[in-house]
Amino acid sequence: MAGIYIHIPFCKQRCVYCAFFSSTRHTLRMQYVDALCKEIEERRLYIKGIIETVYFGGGTPSSLKEEELSKILTTIENNFKLSPKAEITIEANPDDLTPEYLAMLRTLPFNRISMGVQSFDNRLLSKLGRRHNAERARKAFADARAAGFNNISIDLMFALPASTHDSWLHDLQSAIELHPEHISAYNLTYEEGTPLHRSLQQGKITPLTEEENLEQFNTLIDTLKKAGYRHYEISNFALPGYESRHNSSYWNDTPYLGCGAAAHSYNGTSRQWNIADIEQYINGINNNTPETEIEHLTTADSYNDTVLTRLRTAEGIPLAWCKTKFGEEMYEHLMRMASPHIARGTLKEREGHISLTHKGIFISDAIMRDLIYTD
Ligand code: SF4
Q1: Where are the alpha helices (DSSP H) in the chain?
Q2: Do 308 and 228 sit in the same domain of this protein?
Q3: Candidate from 8, 12, 17, 18 with most ligand 1 atoms within 8 A of CB, to mutate
Q4: In what order do the strands lie in the sheet with 347-350?
Q5: pLDDT under 50 in the chain at which residues?
Q6: What is the pLDDT of residue 1?
C-alpha cells in the first residue's frame, strides 16, 4: 500500500497567512507539468505495491486546465498500479469550481474534493486575502454535489484576528449546514515571512489571546462532535467512513511518493524533498540532475516522527508495534515520558495504545516535546 502526492505550486493570488510553496507567476506552467510527468515516470520504482491514494495539493491544483490534469493523471496510471478503490483528491479554491470545471473534473478519476473555504465570514475572508466570498463557497459546494461528488472536505481556519466566539460558531454551523463528509480545521499560525506576520510585528493586527484561541478550539471539537463528526486527528473531523485515507497514510507510516517542486517523499527508511523553486525544479528534471535532498532516518528519527504524527490521531501510538519497530530502549523512553502525562490525565493508555485525552489535545505540542527522543 502506498500513496502519491502531486504538488501544484501555482495560485492566482497569495493569501496573507500562507507559507506554502507557490507562485502567482504561471508562465512556466506547461513546462512544469511536463517536468512533473517526467519525474513521475522516472520515480516509478520509488514505492512498491498498489497505490491507494493520490492527492493533488498546492498551491492551487484547481488552477490547472483539463489537459494538464489529464496528462498528470494518465502518467500516474501508466506508471503505477492504482487500486480500483483509490481515493483521488484534488484541492480546490471555491472560486475555480464552476459547474463547467466540476463537470470536467468528473470526467477525470478524481473522487474527492478538498475545498479551501477557510471562513464563511466575508469580512474575515477579505482580511485573509482569499479570492472567494461565503456565497461563492456555498455555490461551489452545491455545484460540486450536483456534479456528483459525494466525498467533499471543507478546510476552515480558527483563531483568525478579529474573529469572535460567535463568528467562529457561525463558520462551523455554515459548514455543517452543507453536510460535507469531512472538515479540516486549522489553527491560524503567524508564519515568518508572510504579510500576516509582518502586520503582526507592525502592530496592525491583534492576535487572539491564548484563552480565546483555546475557547475556539473547544467550540470546534464540541460543535462538530454534536453534528456527528468523528474527531479522528487533531485538525481533522469526518463522518463515519470518510476519514481522509491520504492524510491517514502520513500518520500510519505508509510510504508515499511526492512529485513536483517542494514535494516530500517517504519510503520507510528515508525522507526526501525536491527544491522549492519552479525554474530550478524544471531544469533539474530536464537535465537529469534533480534538485533533491535526502535524509536517511535513524531509529530515533523514525520514533520521533511516530510521536509527532500518530499522537495526533485518535488511535494514538500502538505500543506493541512501537516496541517491535523501534526496540526496547525507545519503547521504555516512551513509557517513562508518557507516565507523568497518564497520571495527570493528558494521555491515556487503552487497548494497547497511548493517545491524547480531551485535556491533552489542548497541550499536544508540549506533550510531544516531552515524548521526543534526544540523545
Ligand atoms: S490559495 Fe492556498 S496555497 Fe495559494 S496562497 Fe492561498 S492558502 Fe496559500
Answers
A1: 29-42, 66-79, 99-107, 122-128, 134-147, 165-177, 195-201, 210-226, 245-251, 278-286, 299-310, 319-344, 358-361, 364-371
A2: no
A3: 18
A4: 317-318, 353-356, 347-350
A5: none
A6: 84
From the CB of 157, is ligand 1 less than 6 Å away?
no
Distance 158 CA to ligand 1 centre (A): 16
Question: Last residue of some domain: 190, 223, 250?
Answer: 250
∠ at Cα 254 (87, 220), nearest 5°? 65
14 Cα nearest atom in ligand 1: 5
Residue 131, ligand 1, Cβ within 6 A: no
Residues 163 and 72 in one domain: yes
- CB 11 near ligand 1, within 6 Å: yes
> How far is the centre of ligand 1, averaged over its atoms, from the C-alpha of 134 (Å)?
17
Contact status, residue 175 vs residue 205, Cβ threshold 8 Å: no
Structure confidence at residue 127 (pLDDT):
87
How many of the other CB atoms lie within 10 Å of CB of 356? 22
Q: 149: domain range?
A: 2-250
Using DSSP bridges, classify how beta strands 152-158 and 230-233 pair: parallel, antiparallel or unpaired. Answer: unpaired
Q: What is the pLDDT of residue 50?
A: 96
C-alpha cell at 226: 454534536
Residue 73 and residue 277: Cα distance in Å, rounded?
A: 23
Q: CA–CA distance from 3 to each of 178, 185, 216, 334, 370 (Å)?
A: 29, 23, 33, 28, 30
Relative to beta strand 353-356, strand 347-350 is antiparallel
Q: How many domains does the chain have?
A: 2
